[in-house]
Specification:
heterodimer; A: 263 residues; mainly alpha; B: 236 residues; alpha/beta; nine-stranded mixed sheet; 8 helices; 35% helix; 22% strand
Amino acid sequence: MRRIRRRTPWPIATLALIGLAFFVVPLAGLLAQAPWSRLVEVASSGLVLDALGLSLLTSALATVAGAIVGIPLAWFLARSEQRGLGIVRAIVTLPLVLPPVVGGAALLFALGRRGSLGGPLAEATGFVLPFSIWGVVVANAFVAMPFLIITVEGAIRALDQRYEHAAATLGAGRWTTMRRVTLPMVAPGIMSGLVLSWARAFGEFGATITFAGNLGGRTQTLPLAVFVALESDREAAIVISLLMVAVSITVLVLLRDRWWRVT
Amino acid sequence: MRRLTIGLCLALASCGGSTSDDLIVFAASSLAGPFGEIATAFEGEHPGVDVQLNFAGSTTLREQLLEGAPADVFAAADPQIVNAVTSAGIATGAAIPFATNRIVLAVPPGNPAAITGLADLADPGLLVGVCAPQVPCGTLARAVLAASAAAISVDTEEPDVRSLVTKLEAAELDAGLVYASDIGILEEVPMPAGVSATTVYPIVTTSDHPLSEAFVAFVLSAEGRRILSDHGFELP
């Protein structure tokens, strides 16, 4: 079988290359400045390992928490015929466009120990979210969950409902239909949504530093460590940045090959 | 294509960022209050001039300047930071100290945690904030903590003094070490003599803008000094 290969027209190729360079040049800048001799020393320092561990843990927890409530919300947005759904969708996607610092401040005023919700919580249980690891998770989830919701909503919308109808006609109950037909069909969408929202949580900075503060070993994630290091030890900042790039690219490439193949 | 470029220029109000009349001032976060007022007064004296203020942690500003950010005047909360800019050949004049600021122990309005002194901050149940050691107010806070000999458990190291003050004002923190000039609605709890630390603010011109020296002179003038002292700064 002979495959027909067409050359990309040169104007498109040129513009596409410029677009690609836009992403490659900053990365190359990091690599060019990298202090290779200090790579291992910085990357294995207690501060960086603490921050890496905290980043991996909080971004994973935020993704799981986001999935538990975000997938049902995506379902609701895709399937409900309720009026005013546009407003719900706008609220859900707000964190995508809001500056994260604003999100962090909003979280602080709502969930801080003087906040409208955090106040009663702190009084009843003594539990205070800000300046704790749970504050980091909440900030991450707030910023990252919309990525999961819009991806999953899109997948559910794109689903051909005739499969579900067919299952129902063949005697499957609602729960069986969902478990055996709907969920497997939207699984790739859920996976890509989880990956996107994890990646966003892993890189979260503004909402975290505003809501959860910055303390090494407790709330200082990798992006916060980069920010603080930029002003004192630029080489360390570059090493931490490269570490973030390496972790993110590894996860994105691995998952893309496995689940995230957009067909 | 040409029309497109002109259109873009109009849309952005100016090409190349600022017109020659704009004066760009980089100033430490802690100067946000007085420099806002000083800029307005300066614009009043020089009609047609627009003073653009860029506030951030002094070290952030230093990094931006070293990377070639356009600034006409630089005012920082630490002489060493200005020295770094001067030795990089960016300063166009001599650095002049124009204000000093003291680190104080600040608590939210009404002192909800009933803090009476630095020693109380050893209680791990309290939420205590300082500035990150990379910025001058964090360096000073470390000096205070070292001098006090109390084992203080810090809960957050904020990237600049404004974000620390915001969290104290919201009473999300019980106590923090901030500048005397940042007290505002916060309350000051006295610290033992000899524990507090003070920083000196130098100002320097960083371009040949015709008005950069005039702005420095205005900060050093009687009116500039009055505004600084109104905001809780001490004068050298």
